[in-house]
Amino acid sequence: TTFDFAVIPGDGIGPEVIAEARRILQAVLDSASVEATWTEYSLGASHWKDTGETLSEETLERLRGHDAILFGAVGADPQDTRVPSGLIERELLLKLRFSLDHSINLRPARTYPGTATPLAGDPEIDFVVVREGTEGPYVGNGGTIRRGTAHELATEVSLNTAHGVRRVVADAFARAERRRGRLTLVHKHNVLTHAGDLWRRTVEAAAAEHPAVSWDYMHVDAATIHMVQDPGRFDVIVTDNLFGDILTDLAAAVTGGIGLAASGSINAEGTAPSMFEPVHGSAPDIAGQQIADPTAAVLSGALMLQHLGLTEAASRLEQAVHAQLAAWAEEPEGSRGLSTAQRGEAILSRLG
Amino acid sequence: TTFDFAVIPGDGIGPEVIAEARRILQAVLDSASVEATWTEYSLGASHWKDTGETLSEETLERLRGHDAILFGAVGADPQDTRVPSGLIERELLLKLRFSLDHSINLRPARTYPGTATPLAGDPEIDFVVVREGTEGPYVGNGGTIRRGTAHELATEVSLNTAHGVRRVVADAFARAERRRGRLTLVHKHNVLTHAGDLWRRTVEAAAAEHPAVSWDYMHVDAATIHMVQDPGRFDVIVTDNLFGDILTDLAAAVTGGIGLAASGSINAEGTAPSMFEPVHGSAPDIAGQQIADPTAAVLSGALMLQHLGLTEAASRLEQAVHAQLAAWAEEPEGSRGLSTAQRGEAILSRLG
Ligand SMILES: CC(C)[C@H](C(=O)O)[C@@H](O)C(=O)O
Ligand SMILES: CC(C)[C@H](C(=O)O)[C@@H](O)C(=O)O
């Protein structure tokens, strides 16, 4: 079989980190004798400035034909007022997630050798946040009346369905079973009673079917405290779209690694390609200087292989990354001063 | 003038910490020759179990007559299944905030001598979160259809008005002017476009009237990263009800002091009494053992004095707390092993 990948390098440091991820993935696939084709799509803020396209129906249709999408980062320089704030995020990134039904937004959070956490005592952390990706307050269901007057009212509606919550909860329980068997539901059901009640009943029902998994519930505010004071307690966190957005940035911060955080936006039913991307942004301030860290993009590639069932290739790649991070941790200078390409080269050399 | 205070000790450790706060406040008021009366109200989970009352209209009317309310903590033991989950939070705590129009939920976050933060390098932190208190997703405007079926849909609606946003933004700018002149608006306007747009325009308009304050905008997810990596950058944060809930727990965690975090729920127009309470909960697991730390309750009392214009008394009290925390920081054992009353006694002795 040949895997047919779409690549969206995007803006800023996106192209630089994706170049490394792509050649490393190619090497891993080669040595597993897996054939792959790569089709690059020019999308993002620059592309919009050049062409006026955020994501046309035609491009979306072409993307649908691929087996998976490797995504870099998008977003203009915040100083660049030609790009309306939030446009690329909504009309490209969120549009991809919603159109391709990316119900499972998967965000592993872990410490690696040599990366210091900002926490005292430098704890070991290894959990995964399974964030819902197609519902909640992200649905764009808001409105404004009397805009600009003293009587303005603005609303935002969070939509939560049994269908949407069930599939992400099922995925989270399955992951917990393959991991350390612990699941934490994070919500705010004492305030958001209707949505919270749906989430809770759904988790209770799934728990009955997964007796090997023990679970607990945590309010989102309390979860931030635990994530700072005792992040080692988490194994799998399942939560809604907005809470997941907040908690995964916090998770990346406490593990010390925005530069290492990988993610997958997964179509649970396989009706459209899933998408894999580093959590970091396009970092326009350091773009084009070959100083960005490609590790998160490479690890997102490993998640992609994993998702496609290329389990061995995925773990070879992960191990190569871990080995290289461990090696840097031993060296006095670590990876300091290495270019984006040199970092990629080093990981490549670990593939043996 | 006589100040007429209501006191709601509540559940768990509430009565223990409020007892200390009250006698310390009384001492401060005495030496300022300010007369005060205190009326205790039995409310909370235990009271509900005894009487079935969460907060009757009659009690609410009586509370309205006071100058301010000192609140301990409410909430049953989570093991106690007789108390429906969320009932006391919604029907007492949130009902007070909404009925008494507590638009400004004020939550200072700072480090104190001797309290270690969980962050490496133990940074100095001193900011205040001005959280909106009467709107947003907290309004209880949700619904469910087809409950329990595969077609269930649950909604939560966030309501945001010019009136509500303006008054909290005005308060935040005024505070920033009295502090270090920096304000950060936290929202998620790239996703919650309608509410985010209202918040942003409101801040822009207020900024024009407060040229001495410089301000910036931060997405809530990014704000969690800064709070972990660089909390010293914040001076005044203004944000919505839900984001404020999440960020203030995170703030209490990074400052190392849930046991020290004070808060005020303030009626901006003075049409009803404001309420002051420690951020910590009722901690049923350690209740009745005289081991709870009363400091957050005492500092909430200082916020209350401040709010009532008793500025000198408020700063005397704050200074006493700071002096005592500094003294403990010098001692090898610190405050370890001291009872709730002994801690209160120590603060009292610092009042001189
Ligand atoms: C860019 C933004 C719309 C997006 C989100 O809120 O989901 C980002 O923060 C993320 O976490 O992927
Ligand atoms: C108890 C709960 C309703 C409350 C809130 O969400 O506001 C609490 O978390 C707080 O921050 O005061």
TrEMBL record, chains A, B:
Signal peptide: none annotated. The keyword Disulfide bond does not apply. Residues 4-347 form the Isopropylmalate dehydrogenase-like domain. Keywords: Manganese, Metal-binding, NAD, Oxidoreductase. It comes from the Bacteria. Its cofactor is Mg(2+); Mn(2+). The keyword NAD applies. PANTHER family: D-MALATE DEHYDROGENASE [DECARBOXYLATING]. This is 3-isopropylmalate dehydrogenase. It comes from Nesterenkonia aethiopica.
